[in-house]
Design a protein that fits this description.
By secondary structure, the chain is an alpha/beta fold. The protein has one domain: TIM Barrel (Alpha-Beta Barrel), CATH 3.20.20. It has 17 helices and eight strands. Strands 1-2-3-4-5-6-7-8 form an eight-stranded parallel beta sheet. The structure holds hypoxanthine (HPA) and zinc ion (ZN).
Length: 350
């Protein structure tokens, strides 16, 4: 890494916002703002169990992952048409680009929609068209990761994969999300093995609320190339060493962890410890419409809460986001060069 001069702490928020970065852990259904939920409900004639945007927002007081998921799946019920998926993804990509996200790898939960009678092609075509248009309109590159819901059966995941395969060129990987506890990775070993044969990238949520054993399982049974969250890995020294040695990235989501009570405060978050253990940590927003902030809010609030985090850490986190992505090597080099230029410009006082 190049030599970083000292930077006063008061300049950190500006730098964190300005630096180019990749977002690797964003559930597109979690970017659905209450205003858009109500607009889509009206457009599609869907009845909501909330009288107003304010009432819905007031329901966003979560105690754990499951208390969030119940509301998150209810919010997604307004998505019916291809244009709905397009509008949701376009809004996220516009916002992400405005926060200097140059590349996004976006999760979507098809089973949430196909279970309501929405066709797989409706979901994927709408999201994919938004990704294509966003590159031209906002200059952001974006790709899609199909996530299996782990509270459902592996058989259901197989059926979902089968439905998605005709659209194989429109998503580049698979993930695993929803209720972690009681749904260990090995439940999906066979479907992930099939995805591996198909040449799909593989990631999995593990070690958000679940134990380090679930992170081991994601690595050994699913051949996950990245771990989503992974913060519980800190409780297993051998696991931390393995993650460091194999450069397995962790896509950490500070505001999500705060809102779902994984940590009591941002000051108590263990991101800095994970970074200092030489893990390829990244910062992400998870479900920004529900957790009170997009990617830059995750960076700035975490850095504000933890004086030990420095400009060097900021650089490392953004650099890691490019390295951890599934983008082409040539694109990574371009973004990393832009990152370096951004820091140099910043230190020259622009
Ligand atoms: N964990 C598990 N499933 C999810 C999450 C999460 O943080 N967000 C959306 N689905
Ligand atoms: Zn997530």
């Amino acid at each position: 890494m190049f030599k970083l001069p000292h930077i006063p702490r008061e300049r950190l928020p500006g730098l964190l916002a300005a630096m180019p970065k990749a977002e690797l852990h964003i559930h597109i259904e979690g970017s659905l703002e209450p205003e858009m939920i109500f607009a889509l409900a009206a457009r599609n004639g869907v009845a909501l169990p909330y009288a107003s945007v304010e009432e819905l927002r007031r329901a966003y007081a979560f105690t754990d992952l499951q208390s969030f998921l119940d509301i998150y799946y209810a919010g997604a019920s307004v998505l019916l048409k291809e244009q709905d998926f397009y509008d949701m993804a376009r809004a996220y990509l516009a916002r992400a680009a405005s926060e200097n996200v140059v590349h996004a790898e976006i999760f979507f939960d098809p089973q949430t929609h196909t279970a309501r009678g929405v066709a797989m092609a409706t979901v994927i075509n709408g999201l994919h068209r938004a990704c294509v248009d966003a590159r031209a309109e906002f200059g952001i590159s974006a790709s899609l990761i199909l996530s299996f819901l782990r509270h459902l059966s592996e058989e259901d995941a197989f059926a979902t994969l089968e439905q998605a395969l005709p659209l194989r060129d429109k998503f580049m990987g698979v993930g695993l999300d929803s209720s972690e506890l009681g749904n260990p990775p090995e439940k999906f070993a066979r479907v992930f093995a099939r995805c591996r044969e198909l040449g799909l990238h593989r990631v999995a949520h593990a070690g958000e609320e679940g134990p380090p054993a679930y992170v081991w399982g994601a690595l050994d049974m699913l051949h996950a190339e990245r771990i989503d969250h992974g913060v519980q890995a800190i409780h297993d020294a051998a696991l931390v060493r393995r993650l460091a040695r194999e450069r397995i990235p962790l896509t950490v989501c500070p505001l999500s962890n705060l809102k779902l009570c994984v940590f009591d405060s941002l000051g108590a978050h263990n991101l800095k410890q994970l970074l200092d253990a030489d893990l390829a940590v990244t910062v992400n927003s998870d479900d920004p419409a529900y957790f009170g902030g997009y990617i830059n809010a995750n960076f700035t609030q975490l850095f504000a809460a933890q004086p030990a985090l420095t400009a060097r850490d900021a650089y490392q986190l953004a650099f890691n986001s490019f390295e951890a992505s599934f983008a082409a090597q040539a694109d990574k080099r371009v973004w990393e060069h832009r990152l370096k230029e951004c820091f140099q410009r910043y230190f020259e006082g622009d």
